[in-house]
Amino acid sequence: MQVKGTKRRWVRIMAGAVAGAILLAAIAVYFANQFVTPLLRSRLHTLIIQGSDSLYRYKLGKLDANFFGGNVAVENLQIRVDSNRYRQLRAAQALPPLTMQLDLQRGYIKGLSVFRFLLGKQIRVSEIGSLEANVRLSRHVRPQEAPRNNLPLWKAIQPSIKSIHIDRINLDGVKLLYRNADTSESVKLQFDRCEARFEDIRIDSAAAADTARLGFARYVTLNFHDLKFRTPDSSYKMKAESIIYSSKNRYLELSEFKLQPTLEQEDFYKGINQGLSRYEVEFKKAWFTNLRLDQFINNNIILADSGVMLQPELKIYADRTQQGAYHSKYGAYPHQKLLTAAVAIDVKGLRFTDAAVLYTERGAKSGQEGTIDLTGMQVHAGNITNLPAVIRQNSVCTATMQARIFETCPIQARFQFFLDSAEGEFAVVGKAQNISAAQLNKVAVPLGNAELKTGTIQSIDFNIRGDNYNGRGIVNMRYQNLTVALRKVDEETGAITTQKFLSKLLNRFTLHADNPGPNGVVRPGREVVYARPSTKSFFATIWKTIFKGMQDVMLKSGVYE
Question: Which residues cross the membrane (predicted)?
Fold first, then answer.
């Protein structure tokens, strides 16, 4: 009996101990929960206000913390830029590369290490996520000479927070607006939906010294959908189906991209009331390898090993009947635009596959349209850079092209752009073959008021150098049975008639019908010089120089104006 009584006492003692432990644990959890939530709010204040050097202000709606599992629910968090502090930092050239405004409807934190948080002032989290958010990012390009003595975030949050380590951040259902904040007319990019994943986020002294990180994250994956964009004057709009970026692979991909005027062709020229060209650009897909997004954000540099663009198409329309304002194109050659770009660029190689270029011009006199089309283009460009250190090592940007002109005629060319030239020097060597009179008439009739009645051009070889002011070179040409009919536009009625008498004189006394001639002797081309008007573009300068060389071969007088 005594043994049974002893057992009962031990059972009661154990039950009381367990109940007491449970009660103490419940009390501890209760007080921990009561303590964790205010402390979390305090640390959030430290991170946002103190960590940004008072650049931001914020409002927080609901924050619920659960001791078990370390889960936290957040609702209605708003982060705004403090305008007064923004102006102070901008004047001191001390703004960060990116500023942000956030409207977070719902978010969560999982796996918060409560004891580290309470006892060690360390924030250790498994996952942070958002379910609904609007984000507005503004990018600030800091001058190279600007001081970079901002207090790093890991120092700014001390001693309240010793370190922060987050395994991953998942953002889903985010609407994003991005703009450059340098001018009031800055470009704005809008994404209707965005998903982002950040992995191994650390805010401490060791992570700050890790140059492989993008911001504070080891790896970043971004997926943007439904890009929308308009130029500041709303003359052009841009859209893309998706943009994907992975910092782990340093890979950027764009799909279904289009850039086109906002207005249709007729309304476009009414709106601008100037003789400007109208552009449309689109491509199926493009990707860049070893692209350093961190260098672009922090240092305004585009660095990539290679880029590939699938099925790009460029359409250019020029209405020469429009009498627009004078626009000088000095300094507007492709490599001159590269050298004066607002962003530093160093791309080792760029390839265009199955590309197309369609240039359509409406003749000033005839009012008719002529089109030169290059299709099936394979283009490879190398050493695309405006970095002085790279140019000192290699000052030539090269591009090779193989394509078809007028749908069936093969053409190839090799371009050299001299990046160290103050005068925009370039060189191009190329060859076109098997062009018929009917194909040339697509351009000659509407734009040149001339019709090739018969003839075939077997080959045109050209070797041209140029700069801001001239194009010069030699054109060699082989053709047979060439006859031309000159045309005239009646200024009153607009009727087009053939000038039969002048055509006969041209074909009999001025034009060489064949090369080689009847004696089998080939007439070689001589060097010609084309004085470039300041209104002519890069490709117009090349074409005008080639055409002048063709005249030297075809015409007995050398040149026909």
Answer: 12-32
CA–CA distance, 405 with 393 (Å, rounded to integer): 36
Residue with tokens 């449970």: 22
Neighbours of 432 (CB within 10 A): 22
Distance of CA 325 to the CA centre of its chain: 29
- The Cα–Cα gap between 337 and 329 comes to 11
Q: In which residue are the tokens 């405004």 written?
A: 101
Residue 300 CA neighbour count, 13 Å, CB half: 15
- What does the pLDDT look like over 262-303, one tens digit per residue? 888 777 777 665 667 888 999 999 999 999 888 888 788 999
* Domain range list for the chain: 2-167, 328-561
Two tokens, residue 122 = 């360390």
- Distance of alpha carbon 411 from alpha carbon 432, whole angstroms: 4
The SS3 of residue 244 is strand
- Residue 555 CA to residue 561 CA, distance in Å, equals 11
**pTM, two decimal places:** 0.80
Please answer whether residues 124 and 112 qualify as being in contact, where contact means their C-beta atoms are separated by less than 8 angstroms: yes
Q: Are 347 and 304 in contact (CB under 8 A)?
A: yes
Nearest CA to 99 out of 186, 162, 34 is that of 186
E strand or H helix at 480: strand 470-489
- Within 217-363, residue ranges assigned H as helices are 265-272, 293-299, 334-339
DSSP 262: S
Q: Using alpha carbons, list the distances in angstroms from residue 492 to 364, 489, 496, 518.
A: 15, 9, 11, 43
Residue 235 is given by DSSP the state S
